[in-house]
Structures are given as C-alpha cells and as structure tokens.
Automatic annotation (TrEMBL):
Residues 1-20 are annotated as: Disordered. The chain crosses the membrane at residues 42-62, 82-101, 122-148, 160-180, 192-211, 244-265. Pfam families: ABC2_membrane_4. The keyword Transmembrane helix applies. CDD domains: ABC-2_lan_permease-like. This is Lantibiotic ABC super ATP binding cassette transporter, permease protein. The keyword Transmembrane helix applies. It comes from Actinomyces succiniciruminis. Keywords: Membrane, Transmembrane, Transmembrane helix.
Length: 276
C-alpha cells in the first residue's frame, strides 16, 4: 500500500462540502427552527391577552346595553368582533411580527442569519410563515372565550353562531397580506415600537376606507381583515354576508395581496446588508 506524505505540523485539508454548515438545510427544518424561536418570545403573551381583552370589552358592552341590544348570540358576537375587527386584530398582528423579529435585531443575530445555509429570503419567509400559527391560535382562543363568556357570564341560550367561527377563521387567511407587510416593516426597522406604530396608523386608515369602497378595502391589508372579521355581523350596517358574495372577494384579495407583500418581503430580505 503506497504511503502518503503528510506533514505532521500541517492538518489535512477539509473539503468545504464536508462541513456541516455548508449543507443546504431543508425548508421543513427551517420552519421548525423558526417555530422553536417563538417559544420564549413575547408572541404568546399577545395571543393570550388580546382575545381576553376583546371578550371582556364585548361582554361588558353587551351587558350594559341590554335595553337597546337584543339578548342573542348574534348580537353578542357582533359586539365582540366590532372593536376586535376594527382595532385589536391588526394591532395584534403588528405586535406578533415585531416580537418575532426582535431577536434578529439584537447583537449580531442579523449578521449570523445572513451566514446560515439558508438564504436571507428563505429565513424571512419562514419566520413570517410560522406567525400564522399564533394568529390561528389567537382566533381559536377568541372563539372559545366568546362561547365561555356567553354561557357562563351572560347566560345566553343556544349555541355560538357558526358564522362567528367562520369569520374568525376566515380572518387568518385574510391576514396573509397584513402579516407579509408587517413582517417587512419589522424586518427593516430595528425598533420594536416603530413597526407597531405604523401598524396602528394603518389600522386607523383602514377604518376609514374599510366600508367606503370594497376595492380599496381589498387593496389595503388592514381593511381586508376588518371586512373578514365583520362578515355577517349585525353590529355594522354594511358588513356583508357570509355567502360567496362576501367571502369570495376576501379570499381573492388575500391571495393577490399575499403574493405581492410576501414577494416584496423576500426581495427586500435578499438585498439586506450586514449590520455593524
């Protein structure tokens, strides 16, 4: 067997392709990593607190206005979704994305993200995608707390309207453009408060345009979630129904807006430069 001559003081060269960090990671693994990052973040506080505040405010408003509000599940559900659809949900999404991006803006995390086997665009999309899980959890908690309040505290007969659950879950799909937009803002701004403040401003604008024009409401992500959450509600006169005429446009705008804002997010992440 021929002998190989390797100097004792010089280590044998290692191929770059053999190093663990050079191995291209898989998309499911990246999603898992980003989901694990959420465990110690502020995300779950938002998921827990916002539905509680929403149901409490809706229950108090319903109980204090019994002389003008019909004592029905439909009326109670309308009171819950009124302020939630107009204010709380969009602000919650802004808080969720700001909390998710906060670790990447601290120390050298942003620069390390750019050196991983995954492209910055893939990391940004994965981080944004996993936020849809807390959004869905927040909606499920809203449904459960509304049902519990109606049964235990307000003593309403019958059951929670199916339409309320449908509109609450439809809002998860309608939130796809808003999640992309707020993720883009939170990615580009190191401040935690700045993207949340812009989200609040967008929410205020969204209230003004939500029911002025359906086309404008579809283009503006904050208005789109308002329309989704208030479909079938008797608290607003122009809320729209839970039929295809009401649901179809929301789904179409969600797909179109999601494609626009998530593509913009990926492109902006790919062009991001390391920070000092």
């Amino acid at each position: 067997m021929p002998a190989t001559s390797v100097s004792r003081g010089t280590p044998a060269p290692i191929s770059v392709t053999q190093t663990p960090t050079a191995k291209k990671g898989t998309w499911p693994a990246l999603l898992t990593v980003e989901a694990l990052k959420l465990r110690r973040s502020l995300v779950w506080w938002v998921v827990a607190v916002l539905p509680v505040l929403t149901v409490i405010s809706g229950s108090v408003n319903f109980a204090m206005n019994q002389e003008v509000l019909a004592p029905t599940w439909e009326t109670f559900a309308g009171q819950v979704t009124l302020f939630y659809g107009l204010f709380f949900f969009s602000i919650a999404v802004a808080l969720l994305l700001a909390a998710a991006w906060r670790p990447e803006h601290r120390g050298s995390s942003w620069n390390y993200m750019a050196t991983t086997p995954h492209s910055p665009a893939a990391v940004a999309l994965a981080k944004t995608g996993v936020i849809l899980m807390p959004v869905a959890a927040m909606q499920l908690l809203l449904i459960a707390l509304t049902w519990l309040s109606g049964i235990v505290f307000l003593h309403l007969g019958g059951g929670l309207p199916v339409g309320f659950a449908v509109s609450a879950l439809l809002a998860v799909v309608a939130a796809v453009p808003l999640v992309g937009l707020q993720s883009l803002l939170s990615m580009r701004m190191r401040s935690f408060a700045a993207p949340v403040a812009l989200g609040l401003a967008g929410t205020v604008i969204g209230i003004a345009v939500a029911y002025q024009s359906r086309a404008v409401a579809g283009l503006w992500p904050y208005s789109l979630v308002t329309r989704a959450l208030t479909l079938g509600s008797n608290a607003l006169t122009d809320a729209g129904g839970l039929d295809w005429a009401g649901i179809g446009p929301v789904l179409a705008w969600a797909v179109a807006g999601g494609a626009v804002f998530w593509t913009l997010l990926a492109r902006m992440a790919g062009s991001a430069t390391p920070r000092v």
